[in-house]
Prior knowledge:
Elements: H1 2-13, H2 18-35, H3 39-89
Helix pairs in contact: 1-2
Amino acid sequence: MKMELALYTALISINVPEPKAHAVIEALESDMQTLLATKSDLMTLEHRLTAEIAQVRSEIAHLDVKLTVRMGVMLSAAVGILIAAMKFIH
């Protein structure tokens, strides 16, 4: 409210007609309410981002375990094939 009054006073002091000064103030208030984020908007966004980051971290951990198991299986299979090949050659 303080800012609107200061802006209104400034507009009137430079000879802007009163209806136009009111229109400027109303347009500014409208834009501030629809375009600017409030503290609660930012807190909501922070909570959503924190939850998404936690979800992505758990998915990465799951994929890491899955990849480790697959690499272990492939390494075991490769060693088994090499041992079988060595016994076949001898």
